Amino acid sequence: MKHQAIPGGAAAPPLLEIEDVSVRFGGVQALGNVTLSVEAGEICGLIGPNGAGKTTLFNCVTRMCGITGGAIRFDGARIDTLPARDIIAAGVARTFQNLGVYPRMTVLENVMLGAHHIWGGATLDTLLRPRSTDRAERRMLDWCRDVLRELGLEAVAHELAGAMPYATLKRIELARALAARPRLLLLDEPAGGLTHGEVAEFGELVRRMRDRHQLTILLVEHHMGLVMSLCGRLAVLHLGRNLAQGTPAEIRAHPDVIGAYLGRAA
Ligand SMILES: Nc1ncnc2c1ncn2[C@@H]1O[C@H](COP(=O)(O)OP(=O)(O)OP(=O)(O)O)[C@@H](O)[C@H]1O
């Protein structure tokens, strides 16, 4: 994919560049020389059969997992050596396959956790005092309430997250990621466990959030209807390696991809 042109003629680097990344867990080669670029503003899908290495790649970008080879750049700068909090502060947020929502906290408190790094080093204890009169705290609270409103969660802001239905938990996770004001959003199986109607609604929500917050999105998802309708480009991993990259139409017709999904060695 061509890099975006910037004034002066030079090409802007992709927002996210994953170059030759390898990860080994003991005897398991989870990723082997994986390369992927994500351009600013795109929704790029990352697909592949179970165990392909998709979540591991997300974990590498967010530094929940160290890489054993290669490099990861965000906006042109290496991030694979940074601590996780610096990566969040740089503008990378994510959701989790198995939901990272805290059930004993309210919906608002969960979302405020996402805004923690913008808070300037306050303790979580301070952050979670919703009656605080401190001006900076009020601004943060207002920002989190705005995000809740955008995602239709305002009415349940003070309810315990654990009491919410599954589809609402998915939106709480998205709200928490958005509260961090990311430039790059990594969504790990956001449609998993949703009904057909909820998947369509979630897809629309993601598209709206992308436009409103000028996000770049990397989406891991098994729901092919959602992936094909939402993503302009797809990257396919298989057994920890790049298998194919292209438009949804190209990927749908790619013999190696069809073979991998049907269980045939590519
Ligand atoms: N912490 C770990 N320790 C050991 N092996 C791991 C660890 N995390 C992942 N793996 C292995 O790495 C490989 C890739 O797993 P990963 O979860 O990244 O795949 P995935 O594509 O996200 O799969 P799924 O679609 O099922 O979520 C698998 O073989 C998995 O068992």
From TrEMBL:
Molecular function GO terms recorded: ATP binding; ATP hydrolysis activity
Q: Which domain of life is it from?
A: Bacteria
Q: Where is the ABC transporter domain?
A: 16-264
| GO cellular component terms attached to this protein's record | plasma membrane
- What keyword terms does UniProt attach to this protein? ATP-binding, Cell membrane, Membrane, Nucleotide-binding, Transport
Q: Which SMART domains match?
A: AAA
Listed name of the protein:
Amino acid/amide ABC transporter ATP-binding protein 1, HAAT family
- Mind giving the lineage of the organism this protein is from? Bacteria, Pseudomonadati, Pseudomonadota, Betaproteobacteria, Burkholderiales
